[in-house]
Structure formats: structure tokens, C-alpha cells
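Two proteins, back to back. First:
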Amino acid sequence: MIRFATISPCYNEELVLEQSVARLSALFDDLTAKKKISPESQIVFVNDGSTDGTWPLIERLHRENSRVRGINLTRNVGHQNAIMAGMMTAREWADAVVTIDADLQDDLSAIEQMIDAHAEGSEIVYGVKVQRKADPLLKRLSAEAFYRLQASMGVESIMNHADFRLMSRRALDILSQYHERNLYLRGLIPMLGLQSSQVDDVISERTAGTSKYTLHKMLGLALDGITSFSVRPLYAITYMGAAFIFISLCIAIYVLHAIIAGTAMPGWASIILSIWLVGGFVLMAIGIVGIYIGKIYQEVKGRPLYNIKEIL
């Protein structure tokens, strides 16, 4: 039997926590009865700077249920950093952890399959979404497009995998050696090179509350995922610059021909169009380069990803 823990980041999740604890406790009872996990296994909630009653509720659940533990961060640090805080703290308590969102939309039955795969030698087990009908259409389409964009940019990741995964203590120990400020676990964990496997994850409807993962946050995560693991956008700028130079040479030949043939006519439309086109390209190029420079700036400062205020 292994000492096991689930890690759930929480941001304003007071509406779902009681139900989540009840469902996870039932799962833990079943797995303990099957002698797949130790009775000392833990349900860990990471309070990521919630502004509602999430932390007081975690404190009460901790008093009522010996399995429940809480990690209270000093402020909101974001989903990825909150997961990292939970994993790095829980690796002192557990032989393996499963990260799962507090709303439990991921398939709880897949956790037993993850534990079985770990027992067979997998250090990392990914939950891969095979059915996303519970997600809005826009989210499904944008997610598919993002995974394909990542692949085209050379980012190593698991298709249709979010942050529902099992990691062994060995995997966590290796992950702890990575000190990146711009954290994107979906791209970072496959780089560990450990034996891994996959299980199916069927997404269910959220039972209460609303998703805290807004479009703005998803776009920010997507941007981090690409710029933290690929320099292809920089090469794309170079190739686009070369293409613009070629186009300008073609225009120059056309202008010379028009002058020689006497067909040149004054006009500003083409000039204005060219200025806007080239200006837009230059601004985009500066922006992309600026993102990379900004990331270097953040990494060089070496600030901690999170600060823990209290551990239950």
C-alpha cells in the first residue's frame, strides 16, 4: 500500500468543497478497503488567495475529517503555482500524488487506474480527456486548436491532457530541481523523461459554482506554454522579415518598370497600406521579442513561486 494524496488548488471554491470532500472520502475508503492506498492517505486543498470563505471551510473540514489537510498561500499566485505548492509540500507526506481540480469534473474512477499503473511501474500517469461534452463548445474548440498549435511549435505535451495526473515521489523530487518562474506544468512534466502511461478521463458537469479559469487566464496559460518551451516564434519573425524584403524587391522592380514605361501614377493608397502592413509587423515582432525578454527578466530575479502562510 502507498501513502497517497490528492492535491486540489482552490480559488473561491466554498460552494463545492463539502461535496468534493464527501466524494473523495468515499473513494479513499474504497481504495483503502482494497489495500491499494494507506489509511494515512490525505486530501490536500491549496487555498490560492481566495476572497470568499474557502479557507475557513477548509479549516472546519480539517477538524471534522482527519484526512483533510490544508495549505494556505499568502496571496493568489495562479493555478499552476498553487499546484506546485501543493505537490512540493505533499511530497514530504506521500509516496504518490494526484493533482485534480477542486470541482472534481475529472473522472474520479480514473484515480484507481492511475494507482494501478503506478504499481506496475509508471512514475507519471496522465489523465487524457476522451470526452469533453461538459465543456462549452468554445472551450473545446479553443483547447483543440491550442494543443495543435503547441505541437506545431515543438512543445512536448500530451494531447488533451490538462493537470489531472499522478506523480510518484521520485518524479516530484526531480521536478523540484526545476526552478522556472514561468511555470507550465503540462510542458515541463513530460520533459522529466520518466516512465509514464495514460488513462481515460471523462469530464463531467460542474455540480456547483462557476469555473474560475476565465478566457483571459486560459490565453495567458497558452502564451506561457508556447513562449516558455519554444523559440519558433522568434524564427517565424525572421522568416516573415525575409518575406517582406522579397516583397519589397518585387515592388521596387514594378516601380522601376512603371517609371520606364511611363505608366506610373501618383497615389497614396498603396503607400499607406504598406506603412500599416509593415508597421503592424514591426510592432508584432517587437511584442514577441519583448515577451521573451520579460521572461528572462522574471527568471533572473529568481523570486519564489509562492509563500505559504499556514499548513494544516
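And the second protein:
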Amino acid sequence: MSSAQQFLNYIQFEKRYSLHTVKAYSDDLDGFGVFIGQNTDKEIAFCEYKDIRSWVVFLTNQKYSKTSINRKISTLRAYYKYLLQHHIISQNPVSKLQMLKTEKKLPIFVEEIALEKLFSQIEFPNTYEGKLQKIIFEMFYATGMRVSELVNLRNSSINIESSTLKVLGKRNKERIIPMTHQLIIACGEYNQCKINDLGIYKNDDYYFLTKNGKKMNSRLVYQYINYYLGLVTTLGKKSPHVLRHSFATHLLNKGADLNAIKEMLGHSSLAATQVYTHNTIEKLKTVYKQAHPKA
């Protein structure tokens, strides 16, 4: 078994990275392997700094974005760190390779007034699918969960008595998120809808089911979100992650503690959550310019 495959097995089965992440790492290593094979006679495990630097230059010349290149560098960093820890190599060739500088993009979010319009004025169809679409919006905006977390939510994950739900996040890390009163009511209505329309409600089942009684899939969720957000906002990007950004931004705007938001989002570090403070600062600047006599 190659060292690359050993590494991929390690991140999948021991580190418990998602299949999506494992595939991305695999694609990056394959791309690097092709480049090295065409330009040297080395195995990728024993490449030097100059080989990796040449690859970065090649990717830059091929017009890859800085974000994509940085992700590939991160893959190599993890790979060579694994090789070093397992004594396959004695020096890490990526240790002095710097990430490319990129402009930080502010998270895209939907204004509160637009989401208020969605929940109060937009009519969802009076069918099982319409009620499913509405509860999905309620769940995203009330919890800030990721789309992968939503489609894998179980009936047993929701505890109405304690007004909490348990989410299985990245790398199988569990977190508890409080439920709003409105979300509890919406869940009760959806639970009854499943019984009436589908005739099923088992505690070990997935919570969100299609009209055919199958597990909800991410593609269908994206379609729902894109369609209904298109009715209330002109944002170019209309995805579940935009609702996650909206959840965090609106909480911060209302004075929520940054550490509390971090825990609810399931971020591993506060740095990932602090990006939302920039949106708050931009909002303050706008208010200042509109209201101050000398602005």
C-alpha cells in the first residue's frame, strides 16, 4: 500500500474526516503525483521543498485561485506531517512553504427583514413537501447547522422536553443546540405531518424525509433554499450556508457572546467565528455614515 493511501485511510478511519474531505485530499495528492511523475523520477513521499514550490508555481500559472492552491498546500502539510510522525521521512519539505495571501471575504448573509418576510408573507404549499420546505428553513435559521448535519439529523436527536437538539458535526463531534419556541412548534407540526401523510415516525429514523419517505438529500435541500431565498433577496449566492451565516450574524448583531456562537456553530477555534464580527463592524459603519451629521 502506498504512503498516500495509508494517509488517506488514516484521515478517514482514525481522524474520521468526512468522505467529501477525504476525496478532496485524494484529488490533491493525485494531482501532485501526476505533476511529480511528469517532471521528476521521485515518489511524492520523498519530494523536496523545491519540487513542491515548482508545483505551486505551476498551479499559479494554470490560473488556479489562491484559495484552491492554499487548500492543496494544506493537504500536503497534513500528508508530510503524517509521514514525519510515522518515521517515513526525516524532514518535512513543506515546513517553510508559506500560504498565498488572499483577501478575506466577508460571509454572505440575508438581512433580517428579508427572512422575516419569508416566514411571515411567503406561502409554502399546504402539502407534505411544502411543510417539509418550511421546517427545513426554520431549522437552518434557528440552529445554524450545516446541510450535512441537517440531512443526517435523527428523530432521537430532538429533545422537546429540554428544548435542545443534538447535532453530529465534523469528525463526529457532537454538540447541543438550544431550540427556539417557534422551532419546537414547527417540529411538532412536522412530526404530525409525517404520521398523517407518510404513515411513519420511528425514533431511529432520519428526521427529514422526502415525500416518498426516503432520507432527505443535500441536492434537494439546496434546491429548496435557492428557490425560496430567491423570492426575498437578490443575493447572488443562495445556499444553506448563507442561512448559517445569517444565523451567526444576526445573533452577533443582537449582542450574543462570540464564544456561545462558536459552540452552536461547532467551530473548533474562535478564529473561525470571529469573521462574523467584520459584518457587525461594517453595519456599524453604515449606521454611522447615515446618522452622524459630519459623516
